């Protein structure tokens, strides 16, 4: 099936990411076997891919190959009209206001750029890709590494001190701050809880409408 071939192509191209020595110590690690090239082991490989994906998802891993596979799956679902992305009701109005004030908005996610564009292109608000100036994923670096934020700043031609990063993960917030990026931690239903120290240290918001951003004009 095309979907099976797609999964195999994505994950076989990234086998080293799933079977690296650094993964060997992880409980339940499932290696993906190399293809023999004759197609006889197709079902075995498909099952190994399924098991590997389930294992990675159980650990909430953010590997690039996994996110690429998820992006391919989303593309099929969005194209078939089976899915639409939902945003908190304050998000789109706030982003429109920022854009009108001359701000630029970029997305940095562990989800692939393809997946990001699918979400913003097939939302309950319609196609809102026009609200986003650019997309970044883990190809530029992991979100818990400060160098990733420096690379993004360089890529968009902006000083890190002129960037505000919104996140719900304090490890990401800490990495961004190390790069001299301003941070606000977004508190939403279903997010991981924060410690008392984190609540005291970080600027917290529960809605994008709570942010006041000066015009860039």
Automatic annotation (TrEMBL):
Q: Which GO terms describe its molecular function?
A: acireductone synthase activity; magnesium ion binding
Going by the UniProt record, its keywords in alphabetical order are: Amino-acid biosynthesis, Cytoplasm, Hydrolase, Magnesium, Metal-binding, Methionine biosynthesis, Nucleus
In its keyword annotation, does this UniProt entry include Thylakoid? no
What InterPro entries does the entry give?
Enolase-ppase_E1, HAD-like_sf, HAD-SF_hydro_IA, HAD_sf
Q: Which GO terms describe its biological process?
A: L-methionine salvage from methylthioadenosine
**Which superkingdom, per the lineage?**
Eukaryota
NCBIfam families per record: enolase-ppase, HAD-SF-IA-v1
What protein name does the entry list?
Enolase-phosphatase E1 isoform X2
